[in-house]
Design a protein that fits this description.
The complex is a heterodimer of chains A (198) and B (668). In chain A, 73% of the residues lie in helices and 0% in strands. Chain A is mainly α and 198 residues long. Chain A has two domains: 97 residues, Rna Polymerase Sigma Factor, Chain: A (Orthogonal Bundle); 70 residues, Arc Repressor Mutant, subunit A. In chain A, helix 4 packs antiparallel against helix 5 and helix 8 packs across helix 9. Chain B is built from 15 helices and 32 strands. In chain B, the strands form seven sheets. In chain B, strands 3, 4, 5, 6, 7, 8, 9, 10, 11, 12, 13, 14 and 15 form a 13-stranded mixed beta sheet that branches. Classes of the chains: A mainly alpha (198), B alpha+beta (668). Chains A and B meet through helix 2, helix 3, helix 4, helix 5 and helix 7 of A and helix 1, helix 2, helix 3, helix 4 and strand 12 of B.
Chain lengths: 198, 668
C-alpha cells in the first residue's frame, strides 16, 4: 500500500530506480511496476494468445516470475524488454504445454489453436505490438461501446443481439468489421513505426 | 468460409459456445486449412487486444498479485526458520522430511534394493524353501516363497518355527486373543483375503479399504505377502516410465497380488498403492518427490509414449504432496482434474466429490477441458465437470499450515494461520498450533477469529500453546516445542482429514497420571478436561511436576467459549510465570493430606501453588508468602502482608508469585 507515486513505463530511469528498491527488499514497490507495465504486457500477450483466460493467467504468472527473478535484472534501462522477454517465454511455454496437454485431454481444437499461436509467437520475437488506443479512437462511439461490452464485459453475442434488436449474425459481423478497421489501422501504425526506426 | 461464417465462428469460440462435435470438426479442418487457421488465430488475437486496450482498473489485479507474492516471501521465511531450527542444538533427530534426507533415504533405499534384489532371492531360493518345507503341515502353494513379519506381528509359533533371519517365515496375527489355528494362505488367496482397494477408476472419494483393518475386524489370522513376494515388474513397464522408490507403509498391488510394504520397494507403471500407517514417500532418480498421507490411494498409470517422460500418477483419494525439481513435469490425475507441474511444490487432496490443489511454488497446470495455471499463493477447487476455481489463498480464508503432520509417525498437528499473514504471524513468534477439525470441515468464520485471537496472544518464545476448539495445551519443554515446529515446515494444507484418534507417541508415553508425582527430568504431560475445575486441576498437575498440560474439551465446538474464556485466562497466567515453571527449581510442599503444593524460585522470583483437593475447606499455612501476590484475577484470595495461613475453599487453587529475597526462596 506504500505505492503512492505512479510510475511510467516510458521512463526507463525511473523504472530502474524502482527496480533497485525491489531488489533491495522493498516488495511493495513491485506494485508500482505492476501498475506501470500491466497494460503493455497485457497487450503484448493478447496479440499472441488464444483466449482471455490464457492472457490473464500468463499475465499473473509473468509478474510472479518477474518478481522472483528480479535480482537477475541489471538496471540498464531495459526493464520493459526484460519483462516482455519473461512474458514471451511464459506464454510460449504455456501455449506449448496446452498444445500438448489438450491433445492428451481430447480437446483437439484448443491444442491446434495453441500450437498455431505458439508457432506464430516463436517467429515474431519480442516486438511490442502497436498501441491500439489511437485506432480505437477512429471508431464511432457506438462501435467502441459495442467492443467494450463484448470483449471487456464479455457480454454474450446472444444477449447483445437481444438488447440491440438485431440478429446474432449482425452483431458478429459488426464486430468483425470493427476488427478489420482496427487491423488496417494497426498495419498503418506498424509501417510508420517501422519507418521511424533508424 | 464466408465472412459471416468466420465472424460468427470467432464469437462462438470466444463464448465457448461450440459443441464437442463442432470443436472436433473444426480442429480437423484447421489441421489441413492453414489459411483458415491463420485467420482464426489472428481474429482471436485482435479481439483479445481490444479487450486489453479497453480494460482498466488494474488496482484490483495488483492486489491479487501482491497477495500471491506473499507466497514467495513466506517460502523464504520458512526456509530461514527451518535452517534455524535445524541448527538448533536442542533438536533431536526427527522423521520430518528435509531435502537431504530424501536424497539419503533414496540412496539408502537403493542400496537396500540392490542387496534385496540380488542377494536375498539367492538365499531365499535355497534356505527359504527348505525351511518352509520343514515348518508345518499347512498346505502351501507349489512355489512357496518366503513370508516376512509385519512389525506388530505376534508370532504364536516360536517354539517350532525356524528362527533363522534368512527365512522370515512368519504369520501375521492381528488379534492375539483369537484362537490358535494358524493358516498360511497361498499367495493368490492371501491377496484375495484382504479387501482390494479400488484403484484406477475414480471412487468418488469413497474411503479406501484398509486390508489390515479388515483383518483386525475379522480377528482372523492370515499370512500376508511381503514385498519380496511381489511379482517382478514387467520389463515393458520399466521402459515406459522411470521407476519410483516407495518408502513407508503401504499396500502394493501388482498383477493382482497385494502385499504390505514396509521397506523400500520399486513401484512401476501398472502398480497400485494404498498408503497405510504413517504415510509413504515416493521419489525417483530425477529428483521428484511425493509424500502421500495415510489412506491415499494412487496408481502409476501405464503411460502412452507421449507421457513417457513424465511421471503419471492417478490419485483416487487422499492427500499427496508433490515436490518436483529440475524442470520436471510430473503428471497427476485425480477423479476431477489433471495436474501437470513443473518445478512445483504443491498439495493435492482428493475429497469426496472434489479436489483441492494448493501450490507453494513452481508452475502448476490444471485442467481437463480447460487448462489453467495455478500460481503460487493460490489454491484451486475442482468439482466434477467444472473448470478449476482458482482463488488467492489468504483472502478471507484461513489455512492450516502443516508439514507431514506427524510426530513419531502419528498424524498430529497443523499450524493455523491466515494464508497471507503467516509470515507476519511467524515473525511475531506465533506458535499457535491447531489440529484438524473433528469432522474435517472448514471452521466457521467466527471460530477462525477466535483462534486468531488466541494465536495473536502467543508471543512468548518459550511457551508453546496448542490451540484448538477442542484441544489446547501448554508446554514447558522446549524440545517438544522445537519438535512441533519441525513438524511444521511451513507447508500449506487446508483443514481436512480427521482428528487423530490418539495422541502422538511422545504425549502418550509421557503422561502424568492422576495422583502421580513427576520424578526425574523426563517431560510429562497432563491431560486436563475443560470443566468447572480446570483451573485447580491444571495448577495441581503443574505442582505435581507436569511439564505440559493438554486441555481437552469433550464434545463439539460449543465448548469453544469455555476454552476461550477459562483456558485462555489460565494459559495467559501460566505464560506469565512460564520462565519459572520451565527453568526454576520445583519444590514440593508438604501441606497435609488432600492439599497439594509446590513452589518454584529463581533469581529472586518465586511462584507458589497450593491446591485444596479436599471436599471441604482447608486452612493452609503458607510458607514465606511475604512479597507474593495472587497471579490471577479469577479465584484470587486477598492476603495481608504478614498473613501466613489462609482458608481455601474445596477444590480451589491459590497461586501466588512475586519478588522475594534470596533468603526466603528456600522452601521448608
Amino acid at each position: 500500500m506504500a505505492a503512492t507515486a505512479l510510475l511510467s513505463s516510458d521512463d526507463p530511469a525511473a523504472v530502474d530506480l524502482v527496480v533497485r528498491r525491489i531488489q533491495a527488499g522493498e516488495r511493495e514497490a513491485f506494485r508500482l511496476v505492476f501498475l506501470a507495465f500491466e497494460r503493455p504486457i497485457r497487450c503484448y500477450l493478447s496479440a499472441h494468445a488464444t483466449s482471455a483466460e490464457l492472457v490473464d493467467e500468463v499475465l499473473q504468472a509473468t509478474f510472479v516470475a518477474a518478481y522472483e527473478a528480479i535480482r537477475t535484472y541489471e538496471p540498464r534501462g531495459s526493464f520493459a524488454a526484460w519483462l516482455r522477454g519473461v512474458a514471451r517465454i511464459r506464454l510460449l511455454k504455456e501455449l506449448r504445454a496446452r498444445a500438448r496437454l489438450n491433445h492428451l485431454d481430447g480437446d483437439a481444437l484448443e491444442a491446434t489453436l495453441a500450437a498455431a499461436a505458439a508457432e506464430r509467437l516463436a517467429k515474431t520475437g519480442e516486438r511490442q505490438p502497436p498501441e491500439l488506443d489511437r485506432c480505437l479512437q477512429q471508431l464511432t462511439p457506438r462501435v467502441r461501446d459495442l467492443l467494450q461490452r463484448r470483449y471487456v464485459d464479455q457480454t454474450p453475442v446472444k444477449v447483445l443481439a437481444v438488447e440491440l434488436a438485431h440478429t446474432e449474425t449482425w452483431v458478429s459481423v459488426t464486430l468483425h468489421r470493427a476488427r478489420a478497421t482496427l487491423r488496417e489501422c494497426l498495419q498503418r501504425l506498424g509501417i510508420s513505426q517501422a519507418e521511424s526506426i533508424p | 468460409m464466408t465472412t459471416d461464417e468466420l465472424a460468427t465462428l470467432v464469437e462462438r469460440l470466444l463464448d465457448n459456445d461450440l459443441a464437442a462435435h463442432e470443436r472436433d470438426a473444426l480442429a480437423n479442418r484447421l489441421t489441413s486449412d492453414v489459411v483458415l487457421r491463420e485467420h482464426l488465430t489472428d481474429e482471436l488475437a485482435l479481439a483479445l487486444q481490444v479487450r486489453a486496450a479497453l480494460t482498466g482498473a488494474p488496482d484490483t489485479r495488483a492486489e491479487l498479485l501482491m497477495a500471491s507474492l506473499s507466497g514467495s516471501r513466506r517460502l523464504r521465511l520458512g526456509d530461514r526458520i527451518d535452517a534455524a531450527i535445524t541448527l538448533s542444538p536442542i533438536n533431536t533427530p526427527s522423521p520430518i522430511r528435509r531435502p537431504w534426507l530424501g536424497v539419503a533415504l533414496t540412496a539408502a533405499a537403493l542400496a537396500v534394493l540392490v542387496i534385496g534384489w540380488w542377494i536375498l532371492p539367492q538365499r531365499h531360493a535355497t534356505a527359504g524353501r527348505a525351511e518352509l518345507t520343514q515348518q508345518s503341515a499347512v498346505p502351501r502353494p507349489p512355489t512357496a516363497e518366503p513370508f516376512t513379519r509385519t512389525p506388530d506381528t505376534v508370532d504364536q509359533r516360536q517354539p517350532t518355527a525356524p528362527t533363522s533371519s534368512t527365512t522370515p517365515v512368519e504369520v501375521t496375527r492381528i488379534q492375539p486373543d483369537e484362537p490358535q489355528p494358524v493358516a498360511i494362505a497361498d499367495p493368490a488367496p492371501a491377496a484375495s483375503q484382504v479387501e482390494a482397494p479400488s484403484f484406477g477408476a475414480p471412487t468418488d472419494g469413497a474411503a479406501p479399504s484398509d486390508p489390515q483393518r479388515t483383518n483386525e475386524q475379522r480377528g482372523a489370522v492370515v499370512a500376508t505377502q511381503a514385498s519380496p513376494k511381489l511379482p517382478q515388474p514387467d520389463p515393458k513397464a520399466l521402459r515406459l516410465t522411470p521407476t519410483l522408490q516407495l518408502n513407508g507403509n503401504a499396500n502394493l498391488k501388482r498383477q493382482d497380488r497385494i502385499a504390505p510394504v514396509e521397506q523400500a520397494v520399486r513401484v512401476v507403471a501398472g502398480d497400485e498403492v494404498t498408503v497405510t500407517g504413517d504415510g509413504a514417500e515416493l521419489s525417483d532418480e530425477r529428483g521428484m518427490w511425493w509424500w502421500a498421507g495415510p489412506g491415499t490411494c494412487l496408481s502409476v498409470l501405464n503411460p502412452r509414449p507421449v507421457d513417457a517422460q513424465r511421471q503419471p500418477l492417478h490419485l483416487t483419494t487422499g492427500t499427496l504432496h508433490i515436490t518436483a525439481t529440475q524442470g520436471l513435469r510430473p503428471l497427476l490425475t485425480t477423479p476431477h482434474v489433471r495436474i501437470s507441474c513443473e518445478e512445483a511444490d504443491l498439495w493435492v487432496t482428493v475429497f469426496r466429490g472434489w479436489t483441492r490443489i494448493e501450490t507453494i511454488s513452481g508452475t502448476v497446470h490444471l485442467g481437463t477441458s480447460v487448462v489453467r495455471p495455478l500460481a503460487p499463493g493460490n489454491y484451486a477447487v475442482v468439482l466434477p465437470g467444472q473448470p478449476p476455481q482458482i482463488n488467492a489463498a489468504g483472502r478471507d480464508r484461513w489455512s492450516v499450515i502443516g508439514g507431514r503432520l506427524t510426530r513419531d509417525g502419528v498424524p498430529f498437528i497443523a499450524r493455523l494461520v491466515d494464508g497471507v499473514e503467516v509470515a507476519t504471524a511467524v515473525e511475531l513468534g506465533a506458535d499457535g498450533l491447531v489440529a484438524p477439525a473433528d469432522d474435517g470441515r472448514w471452521l466457521d468464520h467466527a471460530t477462525f477469529h477466535e483462534i486468531r485471537a488466541l494465536i495473536n496472544s502467543t508471543t512468548s518464545p518459550s511457551a508453546r500453546v496448542l490451540q484448538h476448539p477442542a484441544i489446547a495445551g501448554w508446554f514447558s519443554d522446549t524440545r517438544t516445542g522445537a519438535a512441533l515446529r519441525r513438524a511444521d515446515p511451513l507447508r500449506w494444507i487446508h483443514l481436512d482429514g480427521e482428528r487423530p484418534a490418539r495422541w502422538p507417541t511422545w504425549a502418550d508415553s509421557s503422561v502424568l497420571l492422576a495422583d502421580e508425582d513427576a520424578k526425574g527430568p523426563h517431560p510429562l504431560l497432563a491431560t486436563i478436561a475443560v470443566d468447572d475445575e480446570v483451573r485447580s486441576h491444571t495448577w495441581e498437575a503443574l505442582a505435581r511436576g507436569a511439564q505440559g498440560v493438554l486441555w481437552q474439551v469433550d464434545g463439539d465446538h460449543s465448548a469453544l467459549s469455555a476454552l476461550t474464556d477459562t483456558v485462555r485466562a489460565l494459559s495467559d497466567a501460566i505464560r506469565v510465570v512460564s520462565p519459572l515453571l520451565c527453568d526454576g527449581t520445583r519444590t514440593r510442599l508438604d501441606l497435609g493430606d488432600g492439599v497439594t503444593g509446590a513452589s518454584w524460585s529463581r533469581q529472586g522470583r518465586r511462584v507458589l501453588v497450593v491446591v485444596n483437593r479436599r471436599d471441604q475447606p482447608a486452612t493452609v499455612t503458607i510458607p514465606q508468602a511475604r512479597g507474593l501476590h495472587p497471579l490471577e484475577q479469577a479465584g484470587a484470595i486477598d492476603l495481608a502482608p504478614d498473613q501466613t495461613s489462609v482458608e481455601l475453599p474445596a477444590g480451589t487453587a491459590l497461586v501466588l508469585h512475586g519478588e522475594v529475597s534470596n533468603k526466603s526462596t528456600s522452601a521448608p
